[in-house]
Amino acid sequence: MRGKLVPAVMISFGLLAAACGGGGTTRADEPAAGQSTVASTTTVTPTTAAPQTSEPPTTAVETTTTTIDDNPLGALRVPDEFATIQGAVDAAEPGDLILISPGVYNEAVIVETDNVVIRGLDRNEVILDGEFDESRPNGFTVFSNGVAIENLTTRNYVNNGIFFTGSYDDDIILTGYRASYITAHNNGDYGVYAFNATEGLIDNVYGSGHPDSAVYVGQCQPCNVIVSNILAENNALGYSGTNSGGNLWVINSEWRNNRVGIVPNTLNSEELSPQRGANFAGNYVHDNGNEATPRKNSDWDLAFGVGIVVAGGNDNLIARNLVTGNANVGIAVSFFPDGETLWSAGMNQVRDNVVTGNPTDLVLLASQADGNCFADNEFETSAPSNIESVAGCDGETGEYLDNYAIPDPSDLGTVDYTEVPPPGPQPNMADADTAPPRPAVDMMPNLTIEDISVPEM
User: Fold this and answer.
1) Residue pLDDT, tens place only, 300-356
2) What one-character-per-residue DSSP string does 93-111 give?
3) Nearest residue to 357 (alpha-carbon basis) of 404, 323, 388
4) Can you tell me the distance from the alpha carbon of 145 to that of 166, in angstroms, rounded to the nearest whole number?
5) CA 366, CA 236: separation in Å to the nearest integer?
6) Which of 104, 178, 270, 409 has a CB 3.0–4.6 Å from the CB of 440, allowing a cystine?
7) Residues 6+ positions from 398 with CB-CB distance below 8 Å
8) pLDDT tens figures, 68-87
9) Options 1.10.238, 2.160.20, 1.10.260, 1.10.10; which CATH number does 68-419 get?
10) CA-CA distances (angstroms) from residue 57 to 8, 15, 18, 50?
11) What per-residue string of b and e applies to 415-442 under the rule 16 or more CB within 10 Å gives b?
């Protein structure tokens, strides 16, 4: 425990008494020589003796030592004790808390200790800045289990703001991760990136200015991950999830002004294909189709202006979302071409959503035999126009009367990710200086769709 000692002072109380003497003597004059001595009476005034005084006993106060604990959490402090975040991380042991004071830290931090919690004292003023330096690719790269990063900003990294991964090149799986109250902006790929990692929580994250996505969960099955309370804007994609699913919930978040809003997808570039078994619910997905955004891959311009698109995925539930004002489509379920592979979409359910104010609210670009279904949605337009009849969730199918023509994406604009305007201040974590550390262990609640409602307009 680190603290400051304030010694108590030994205080003695005494009474200083002065002994006061009073009076004198009167004596007869001596006779002169040769004179007769005449007897006389001599009056003598008795001497008054000084009174006897005794010093009162000393009153002593017992010496004590008082400790003022300015570090009740036992945290490793940056920069008070460690000049760099990496220095504190290297010194940390499992279960430790690292507290970072406001400042700009030009670091690329690598975490290789389990169950460490790394926390900024102010989300908007504790800033990791990569300065677009190739030698600092990620703000944080986390290889260990149970690590939590919270209440800080990562910006200007050529790859990712925060990267959780067991290993990118083999089958080592990270178990347990959390990113909370994070601002990630103007990074060259993703804001918060989880790959080959399970048992995760990504919550209260703001992401903007990414040429891929603000939040990415990839290559996990089952993932056992919750993504919630996200605000993603001005990215190529708000959420992207390649080959990820299995108790994966993307919920209660806002995805706006991106090129595309939410994109679960299947790709050959990652293992565990096809993408399957994710839930997207309680999201407010609006006004996507923003050309003043960066993009890394022009292939995704095929989905430009779509709120939610399942691209070659399977067995996903899209329910209780509010999807409005997107440039082309509200919700789409579609095949997806990846090189020589054409990934079909199958067994996806789109139900109980409010999808209005989009040029086409609901779209199905998949075979009727693939088991995709639409039911109980509030919508105005669809392709095929009778979508809940020909692809209903009651098991009945019918003949398509028409279909959807994908707009030509060749003339779409884009901007460099380094030039997207930075965000304003974002909400801080409560009690960042006093809250006990909470490693990323045993976080998953038992969610059901009944726990989630459609956002209000």
Assistant:
1) 899 999 999 999 999 999 999 999 999 999 999 999 999 999 999 999 999 999 999
2) -TT-EEEE-SEEE---EEE
3) 323
4) 8
5) 24
6) 178
7) 386, 389, 390
8) 667 889 999 999 999 999 99
9) 2.160.20
10) 21, 9, 16, 21
11) bebeebeebeebebbeebeeeebebbee
Residues in the chain: 457
Cis peptide before 7 (omega within 30 of 0): no
pTM: 0.85
Q: Which residue has the tokens 């022009």?
A: 298
Between CA 299 and CA 212 the distance in angstroms is: 11
Structure token pair of residue 243? 């080959």
- Alpha carbon distance 48, 27 (integer Å): 16
DSSP state letter for 87: H
For the chain, the domains span 68-419
SS (H, E, C) 320-380: CCEEECCCCEEEEEECEEECCEEECCECCEEECCEEECCCEEEEEECCHHHCCEEECCEEC
What six digits make up the tokens of 301? 């311009």
